Structure formats: structure tokens, C-alpha cells
UniProtKB/TrEMBL annotation:
One of its GO terms (molecular function) is 6-phosphogluconolactonase activity. This is 6-phosphogluconolactonase. Residues 19-244 form the Glucosamine/galactosamine-6-phosphate isomerase domain. Hydrolysis of 6-phosphogluconolactone to 6-phosphogluconate. The lineage of its organism: Bacteria, Candidatus Methylomirabilota, Candidatus Methylomirabilia, Candidatus Methylomirabilales, Candidatus Methylomirabilaceae. It comes from Candidatus Methylomirabilis limnetica.
Length: 259
């Protein structure tokens, strides 16, 4: 598939050359979305993702021309999911974002909202995270989920996104905003935002790169609906914008017959 913007099935898909171009384009999108959010309500709320493409994006955001254009003092950072690892552990999504981004920009510490997925009582950790989100958005955890200005997501080779893994419990979550999720393949628990809150976002940006994602990207975008097997298909913003930002290797099977 050639590079450039394509509209298919009411989904915005932008194909760029490679991994580095995905991060560059994502950085531009983050700045534009943050500008709009600040103009609209004086602040910017974003949920970060783990994974290798976001890591590259976070490094870019610490440098020009992006760093001074971002409203760090008016930004609240959350996470879409977190692994069962303390901040210092190499698996920690928070730790990765802290090392690559948060420790290098002037964001107030009390505006960085970490998911504590290393705790034993993950139900309590999930409820507390809901309360933290509710506090920032000045609503109650029993209200309708709030609208993040931007949620960054990745796509796993098995079709997972955030920590919504195939056939896992949290896929069914209809009311909670945050849920513990046991991932049998990894023999571990994680914390994840749930479809109801993800789908309320004003903008969702999927970052996908690499040939190992080609088959799953094709299945998610062009295959029959099967969200239990392909949880990324659950992401359908109620009113917001969904943009898939992918490189040519990941897009290489789009438009072919789905096997
Ligand atoms: C995580 C994620 C996860 C990730 C995908 C894609 O904690 O790992 O949030 O959902 O985004 O697995 O990761 P890559 O971009 O590294 O392929």
C-alpha cells in the first residue's frame, strides 16, 4: 500500500514510510490535538501507551519543534494500561514514559497519574485510578466516563490493544472505567482502561509499525467482526476521531483478500 491518507470503513488510516515516520507523524498529531484541547478547555488530557513505537514518539516530544509547542503545565498524563511491574522495572509502561519523556519536560509531578499495577489488590488499584480520573475531570466515578482529549494505543500481534487481550475478562466490562485483567498467555495480571472509557475519547491514535503486524492489522480493519479474538476491533469512538497511523510494512496486506 502506498503512503498517504486513505479513508476506509469510516476509519482514518494514514500510511507512512517506516517506524520513524510513524513517530514523527504521531508527534505532529499530538501537538495539533493538544492545541485544540487547550483552546477548547484550557488543558490537555492524554492516556499513554506502552510499546516500542510510543517510546520513539516520547523521545521526539522532548525535542524541538515539538517540546516548546506542548502545554506541559496544562497537561494531565494517564495510562491506557500498565504491567504488573514497579516503576523501576524495565517492563513498566510508566517507567518507560518517565525515562523517555516525563523526566525531560516541565510537567508538574501532580499531573502525572500512574497506574499502580504492581499492587496485590488490583481491584482496589483500579477503583483508586477511577477516582483519580474522576477527580481530574471533576466528576464522580459513577458518572458516564469522561472524555480524554487523546488516547494513544498500540496493536499487539495477537490483536490486543491496551491490556485488552483476546478472550480476556475485561473485554466484557460495560461500566467500570479501569479493570484488572488476567492474561493467561503471560500468566500475569495487568490494569487496563476499558472499552467504555476508551471509546469516549475525543481522539484515539493507534500507532502500528512492522511487518509482524501486517496480518493482524488486515484482520482488524478488513476481516469480519470478531472482537473477542481481535480486541482492537472494540475500539469505536462514540463521537471522537479514530486515526490509524501505520507504516508501509504493517499496511502491506491491506487491500488483499482476507485469508
Ligand atoms: C503494552 C501496551 C500494548 C502495546 C502493544 C503494541 O503495555 O505493551 O500498552 O497494548 O501497545 O502490545 O506494542 P508495540 O508497539 O511494542 O508493538
Amino acid at each position: 500500500m502506498k503512503t498517504g491518507q486513505i479513508l476506509r470503513h469510516e476509519v482514518d488510516l494514514l500510511v507512512v514510510s517506516d517506524f520513524a515516520a510513524v513517530a514523527q507523524e504521531a508527534a505532529k498529531q499530538v501537538v495539533a490535538i493538544a492545541d485544540k484541547a487547550v483552546a477548547r478547555c484550557g488543558r490537555f488530557t492524554v492516556a499513554l501507551a506502552g510499546g516500542s513505537t510510543p517510546k520513539r514518539l516520547y523521545s521526539l516530544l522532548t525535542a524541538e519543534p515539538y517540546c516548546t509547542r506542548l502545554p506541559w503545565r496544562g497537561t494531565h498524563i494517564f495510562w491506557g494500561d500498565e504491567r504488573a511491574a514497579p516503576p523501576e522495572h524495565p517492563d513498566s509502561n510508566f517507567g518507560m514514559a518517565r525515562a523517555t519523556l516525563l523526566s525531560r519536560v516541565p510537567i508538574p509531578a501532580n499531573q502525572v497519574h500512574r497506574m499502580q499495577a504492581e499492587r496485590t489488590d488490583l481491584d482496589a488499584a483500579a477503583s483508586e485510578y477511577e477516582s483519580e480520573i474522576a477527580k481530574v475531570f471533576e466528576i464522580r466515578p459513577t458518572d458516564e466516563p469522561p472524555m480524554f482529549d487523546l488516547i494513544l494505543l498500540g496493536l499487539g500481534p495477537d490483536g490486543h490493544t491496551a491490556s485488552l487481550f483476546p478472550y480476556s475478562h475485561a473485554l466484557q466490562e460495560a461500566t467500570r472505567w479501569v479493570a484488572p485483567n488476567y492474561i493467561p498467555e503471560l500468566k500475569t495480571n495487568r490494569l487496563t482502561l476499558t472499552p467504555p472509557i476508551l471509546n469516549r475519547a475525543s481522539a484515539i491514535l493507534f500507532l502500528v509499525s512492522g511487518g509482524e503486524k501486517a496480518a493482524v492489522l488486515q484482520a482488524v480493519l478488513e476481516g469480519p467482526p470478531d472482537p473477542e479474538r481481535l480486541p482492537a476491533q472494540l475500539i469505536r469512538p462514540v463521537a471522537g476521531r479514530l486515526l490509524w497511523l501505520v507504516d508501509q510494512a504493517a499496511a502491506s496486506r491491506l487491500g488483499e483478500k482476507v485469508p
